[in-house]
Write a structure and sequence with these properties.
Number of helices of chain A: 19
Number of strands of chain A: 18
Helix content of chain A: 25-40%
Structural class of chain A: alpha/beta
Strand content of chain A: 15-25%
Largest interface: A-B, 122 and 122 residues
Strand order of the largest sheet of chain A: 1-2-3-4-5-6-7-8
Oligomer: homodimer
Distance between the termini of chain A: 41 Å
Chain lengths: ~550, ~550
């Protein structure tokens, strides 16, 4: 057995499915580029049958990230990542997945069907024979379209091992090349999961010519340990997400599995293709775009994970580095020199630093970025990488603007009559101005916006954090809203149910009320585009812009 | 071997040691009460030798939570928890720990010394013989004071097992009753850690009469799995923190270990004394007091951990509950009925609900709380449990107020001249008013406060989140500051180094700028008290108030 563990990233599929993590097509494309740069072997780019938007997002990733010589591995001889699309075990789903991924140099179709008694009885309402027959039929169909087919017996962790061996054996005969073993509900312990994988490898005919994969969930806090147990039992693909985002308590964290294999190489004797120095950047990007925060005590990517490094007065007091440090912060891309630019930095310095951070802006967009940089530098003494990333995200990764913020004026305080006046430019180019009072300045501003926009919604989440240290920091606001009309639902592949779709938005400004208004408008614009009467949620204006911006 | 796993909670010691998690004495007392109600067996209440404040905080917890019939187990026949104090292996430390815990019905002294080559050489500068001798001497001294003595060989995970067996055997002879095995740097895998514990149990003379304990860190995301592996190998005490807070990537999460043992009881065949329905309340309290957020995808206590429950339209579409649910939200205290009170709710309804939430206010304090409740109810249609908890925390769990906010007026917006006017009442009772402009309204308000208070500091962290859903939500602001004078340092027991102490503050208001000002003042007041010339950071005014409030 080889000692290379393939990293299969499902941030864009299982991760994006978690509440509020909805990303725009452009954000997904940027995440895919970042994953390619990180060196993941397979990008599960989405679930194309969910909606025309989802199909289109996967197709764009296949073309722009999965094509030979595409993004990511710029200038290197590296092959592009495999681009994978998920499909339920139905011809329609599989056909759509193929339509989306076929443009990639190395496409993959991933189909699944549940094999546990509880899922077969209550969700599928199928018996064992029917499940087996469907698996054979659908894997064969997928294989007739695509050389690379992955099959997952859903809820494998709670399935009868004998039945699993049978189903997997038939899937292999039907053409599956990767067999993925999901602990769908995060139920197993490392011993159980390792034994399950070992049993599958030992008892499934033909499995020696396939890759065995593991896919764990963190409901009991055991996803990383279970994944490592599966790998030690012989799996050579790990399905993970950046920051461990995903349904419920989330999926296995990419960074934890990769750094455990790296840090304890003598124990595992296994390697991955991940460039670990890109981990922090990927973590920040995914957190910004999904609005899902990373807790300070998160392993590897939490703000405190390397606090011993930053917090201690190092004048000889910390006697030996390794006393309390099992990995170097630099190994995961935590850089110590965070102060980079100031008021007197020029356009060239900005361009160089943005390039180093992975942003290749066109000259026109660089001009725009430089203009915003100078405005910020007037207010703030030092501009850090985090400031630059927030600025670029705010300027270039916003949804198509139906309404734009043209002006905002706020008065508030302990006198108890918070008032906001908002001026928006509408889709017709005309400006609209409204004033409103509220329970606070944000509430007042949102009510004023509502009186112009008229898109009934519920605010589910509102959070602000300072991008950098210091009292003059740039504030980044994340909001998540849910349409009250609810006619636009998203589809959950697991439960086969529809849920009300939620929309996230973010905005950055040194004035947190301005940032709050921007974030709310960004979410509202996403909602407006998604609930347009024709149902086609393209983002043409934005995508054109992005193409210019990133070519 | 019995099947009862003791839960040793170190939220107040190892958890509080993480950057920014500093709590006031009153907050610590409230956390200790909550831990007692949760049913933990041992509360590690602090490190008494760190400072007179720390000693006093542990002493108060020993008296008020650890005494027979004290707090927590109100009305029940349950014994009070063991109250434990940490001490380095020195007579001074052990003496101070004893002074602090001796008032408890069941006191414990916990002392430690490193046994790994890297720690002995670079940190202790001692050889094996010296370490062994010191352990014998200090455990004997601790045992001469206290019947219940715990010893930890620090960095056991990287220690030579033979040497460990020797040291632990001598510690037992010297009187240790609990032997704790720490994976101090979060370095081991579950297989390694389980084998280490099994080896210790097999090879240490006299260990059959002691409790073996495990203490893991989450640097590689394996703390929970390692803890469970240690328990399966025979450990019967698990050292954990609420939400897994702690140094770097944190300690093992109490909630993950307890719920793994509970959910998979047939696998483990072990029980704990934890009342799991108190888990969410403990999680929220610790998050509020420390300002350390819980990520939405955190196992058990994250906002999305049970999202399948809340997010799905349940009209028959989710066919069977257990399809995607391995535990019930109610089992950990996630309640579905979150709307409790409104504008027309009376004082009695508020009192009943506060009691249900665990707050027993005096009549005078209930009046105050009711006044704030009515003000909030005028602004907000429905008041939830989270609103009530934020309100109580804001009203009653604030540090001694050196300066209080008497008035705030703010103007801001896109015109770019954010201005704040602040009126504070100082320690002398006089009011001071200052106006300032800033890069945003928060910066302006903080600059205005600075021009009155004069306590040079750096803002390390600033975050806001909406306590509940809805546009009129109460906003809760958390800040963390560091003194620029830096003459008040905190002591790190592990690295034996001093670090600049940081101070957190929180504030809640429907106006987030007002909440921001309150939070900053709370942190500044903590800083002012801690850096008083006499160095004695008592909080007499507050503690008196709290006594009235909670008796």
């Amino acid at each position: 057995m080889d000692n290379y563990v393939r990293i299969f990233d499902t941030t864009l599929r299982d991760g994006e499915q978690s509440p509020g993590a909805t990303m725009t097509s452009a954000e997904k494309l940027e995440v895919a580029r970042t994953l390619a740069k990180l060196g993941v072997d397979i990008i599960e780019a989405g679930f194309p049958a969910a909606s025309p938007d989802d199909l289109e997002a996967v197709r764009r990733i296949a073309i722009e990230v999965g094509a030979p010589g595409a993004a990511g591995a710029q200038g290197s001889a590296q092959r592009p990542p495999i681009i994978c699309g998920l499909a339920r075990a139905s011809k329609t789903d599989i056909h759509k997945a193929w339509e989306a991924v076929k443009h990639a140099a190395r496409p993959r179709i991933h189909t699944f069907l549940a094999t546990s008694e509880i899922h077969m009885r209550h969700k599928l309402k199928m018996d064992r024979e029917q499940v087996l027959e469907r698996v054979i039929e659908m894997v064969s169909y997928a294989r007739s379209l695509c050389e690379d087919v992955e099959f997952s017996p859903e809820d494998a962790g709670r399935s009868d091992p004998q039945f699993l061996h049978l189903v997997l054996g038939e899937a292999i005969k039907a053409g599956a090349t990767t067999l993925n073993i999901p602990d769908t509900v995060g139920y197993t312990t490392p011993d159980e999961f390792g034994a399950l994988v070992a049993g599958i490898i030992q008892n499934t005919p033909g499995i020696e010519n396939c890759i065995v994969s593991v896919h764990c969930h963190d409901d009991l806090g055991l996803a990383t340990a279970n994944t490592l147990a599966g790998i030690q039992a012989g799996a050579r693909q790990a399905e993970v997400t950046v920051n461990g985002i995903g349904e419920r308590a989330g999926n296995t964290s990419l960074e934890e599995v990769v750094m455990a294999l790296n840090t304890r190489r003598p124990v595992f004797n296994l390697i991955t293709g991940i460039d670990t120095t890109q981990i922090m950047r990927a973590s920040r990007l995914v957190s910004n775009y999904t609005g899902i925060v990373v807790q300070p005590n998160k392993a590897i990517v939490g703000a405190n994970a390397f606090a011993h490094e930053a917090g201690i007065h190092q004048d000889g007091m910390l006697k030996h580095q390794q006393t309390y440090e099992i990995m170097r912060p630099e190994a995961v891309g935590v850089t110590q020199t965070r102060l980079v630019l100031g008021k007197h930095s020029g356009r060239h310095a900005l361009k160089v630093r943005l390039n180093e951070l992975g942003y290749a802006l066109s000259e026109a967009d660089l001009d725009k970025a430089f203009e915003r940089f100078k405005l910020l530098a007037d207010k703030k003494k030092t501009i850090t990488d985090a400031d630059l990333e927030a600025l670029v995200a705010d300027e270039f990764y916003q949804p198509r603007e139906v309404f734009t913020l043209d002006g905002l004026q706020v008065a508030c305080g302990t006198m108890g009559m918070p008032t906001a006046t908002v001026r928006l430019r509408g889709p017709d180019g005309a400006t609209h101005t409204q004033a409103s009072i509220g329970t606070g300045p944000v509430d007042a501003a949102y009510k004023a916006i509502d009186s112009i926009v008229h898109a009934p919604n519920t605010l589910l989440e509102f959070s602000v954090h300072a991008v950098t240290e210091g009292i003059d920091a740039l504030g980044e606001v994340t909001v998540r809203i849910e349409s009250k009309n609810g006619h636009r639902l998203s589809f959950d592949t697991q439960t086969e149910t529809e849920r009300t779709r939620t929309f996230g938005g973010h905005g950055a400004d040194t004035d947190i009320i301005v940032a709050s208004a921007k974030a709310y408008l960004a979410a509202l614009n996403k909602l407006l585009v998604a609930t347009r009467p024709n149902g086609q949620a393209e983002e043409p204006a934005f995508i054109t812009h992005s193409q210019t911006a990133r070519s």
